[in-house]
Amino acid sequence: MPALICGSLAFDTITVFPGRFAQQILPDQLHILNVSFLVPTLRREFGGCAGNIAYTLSRLGGEPLVMAAVGADGDGYLERLRSWGASTEFVRVEPESYTAQAIIITDTDNNQITAFHPGAMQSAHLTKIAPRADIRVAIIAPDGRDAMLQHAAQLAAAGIPFVFDPGQGLPMFDGAELKNFIAQASWVTVNDYEARMLCERTGQSLEALSHSHLNGVVVTLGAEGCDVWQQGECLHVAGIAATQVVDPTGCGDAFRGALLYGLERGWPLARCVELGNRIGALKIACRGGQNHAIETATLGL
User: Fold this and answer.
1) Is 109 a catalytic residue?
2) Residue 181 included in any domain
3) pTM above 0.90?
4) The domain containing residue 238 runs over which residues?
5) 264 pLDDT exceeds 90?
6) Per-residue DSSP letters for 173-202?
């Protein structure tokens, strides 16, 4: 049965500045900032949370059903999704817009400066979710603000259990809106920084959130693994050592693709998270969010 993935499709333009931003940006001159960075290397990757999650889910043998929006330049992305066997019936094409784009400059200390153009993503809310008996689980990943609000409400109305994954979109919502997302969701997943912001804005601790109707709250901790909160109890699931650390871009999305794979099959949450940690370790050893190889036989799937 397919898993519905609501989120962004984007192109990532990634460059590397062979120096340190701190040596180019003068703190006492920030009010008249005017800097230029020479970036000898550049690569363009397929990205966006929905695309990255769908990639991992498909590689594991799942059935991703992507709900997103692309622009007039999105034909290649649609072909890529279909090449994995992912359904694009809910991918909206906005011919007057560009597909969302992130332009990232990274320095030698792994500091990043990012510009993000939302483009067609701002129209993602125009695609509606209707009840479908074949959708077992869904995820609300970072997307346009209206799309996240409306798709969460539509999933709840359709009785489809979903993961609320606010990611970098969390600051767009106030405490009341976040409480409403949580009330509609079946699971919540955040990283440790997002967890602190979520608790601060809602006025609730992770323990309190896990005592609610939720089936679990997952807090990712990078190389340290994850904390899984259920019914007031916290279980730590240890991380998996990566063979090498090449590029963290998309690691959280790879984790969530594995999480969906397990939830779709009715696994206990700790087992889903353990698989997520293993997939995250594979992804960080590869550049880009959609280039990691997954051998399901070696994972025991």
Assistant:
1) no
2) yes
3) yes
4) 3-21+41-283
5) yes
6) S-HHHHHHHHHH-SEEEEEHHHHHHHHHHH
